[in-house]
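Quick note —
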Amino acid sequence: MASSDTVDKVRNSIALVITLNAQNKVTGKGSGFVFYRPGLLVTCNHVVGSDDNVKIRLVDSSADFIEAKVAIRDEEHDLALLKYDATKSPDSLPLKPLEQSKIIEGIPVLFAGYPLGLFTLTTHQGLLSGITKDSTGITTYLIDGTVNSGNSGCPLMDQDGNVIGVVNAKRRERNDLLNRVEELQLGALSLHGIDLVELYQALISNVQLGMGYAVPCSYIPSYKETEEPVVATQAQAKQKREKK
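Predicted structure written out below.
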């Protein structure tokens, strides 16, 4: 079982991530966590999308949002590294990875993030129920735990708060169909005055998945100071997997 001490230990290192459009309206929401060093945040690439206006909040309170910039995108593994001003959140220390040899099926896990429309850190627990590998060699962790929209980018951890992987709420059955529904424009379909597109999108966002997914923390892109955002190519991503 997860202890309150573990949750308290990681709380300041887990962020709410939002994107805004030109009208300063929130267009996306997810989670992230400090990794490698203060000033670097890991999240899912789909959380930040193509938006340049990204903000994060690193404490579970009414603290101000901090501006963040995309440093690296790894589209194949759906990961992104964000840079932010670490001096604005000095208590947010990087989480540490769990030793690879300790990541085995059946171990208890927990993940903490900002699911659904919540602005309060929420922690779930479960089991690492499976470790799979697809035809391209990409490893995926299966989580026997409740993953919701907004959990994308949050850390999958052991009971001591060490990082096992990055949770991805976009991984789901018939994802191709659900993505098409999410991309529909509001007002495209209605019945008796009810916007069915808005209804379908709300249902998708609020579905509680009994099986969650995460990518290994070993896939998190390494970081070197650069002036421009970097997109990791498939060849680079494959090369990194083969070194693990």
